[in-house]
Amino acid sequence: NFEVLVVDDSSTDRATEIIRRFPCRLISLDGRSGASKARNVGARNSTGEILFFIDADCVVQRDTLSRVERAVVAGEQVVVGGTYTKMPADGRFFSAFQSVFINYSETKKEKPDYIATHAMAIERSLFEKSGGFPENFMPIMEDVEFSHRLRRAGSALRMNPSILVSHFFYFNFMGSLRNAFRKSMYWTAYSLKNRDLLSDSGTASKELKTNVAAYFAMLLICLLSLLLQKPAVLFCCLPVAGVNACINRNFFSALRAAMGLPLAVLSAVYYLLVYPLPVGAGSLAGLMKYSLRLGRIQEIR
Q: What is the pLDDT of residues 71-81, one digit of tens each?
């Protein structure tokens, strides 16, 4: 007992032609409006008591909707979240790394910091009361803002790891780096504004933040050793690496369980030695973006 609504945000491929072949309702927007407006329009045109949001690059499992129905209890004022399957819909290595990373990060806590719109279930009445997603907001962070706003208003957030969707990333090496940079930039800008930069928040996890901090700390130690011409200084890297490995041990276990030992080792090497670079660069860009915005606000005042 469900309906499917697809909101087309002015796509330029054959999407609408394909969608019309299936028993669903297609709503086409006039001009590109962004994901928030598309979701809000879909919600307004729906008739169901429960809204379940997914993204255009996600695929539900055979039992996803039945699990959503069981998870959402009428009148509970709870936003229920699902996550990605551990392995992605495409079979690429960097896609697999990303899918495991997101699955692990989003399912660590039963009461998460936010619910992502790639698998978000909410009662229609609660959604309408909330006012919906912010339509004039920074990209990719609208679900985080929405979650935080509802929690401040008294609603609860609950993660249900059995609600799964598989995701098409199609990531190659450069695609993975670009994604890490872009997400870190917007996360940092939002977190500075929200004053929760150091919080353990989903994919902006304590593990990732520790890994990035450890990476640049060890780079600084190596540079100091070179400048002082004292190789013994390099031994200072050992406790930093040890703390980082200890904090990330559960993530490494998740990689091994999902991918097997050989690919898990490759993923860990990528995570430890490469991934911190775009995350750190994105964080710096986010800091600059936030500072520029703060400067403009002060000028207006």
A: 999 889 999 99
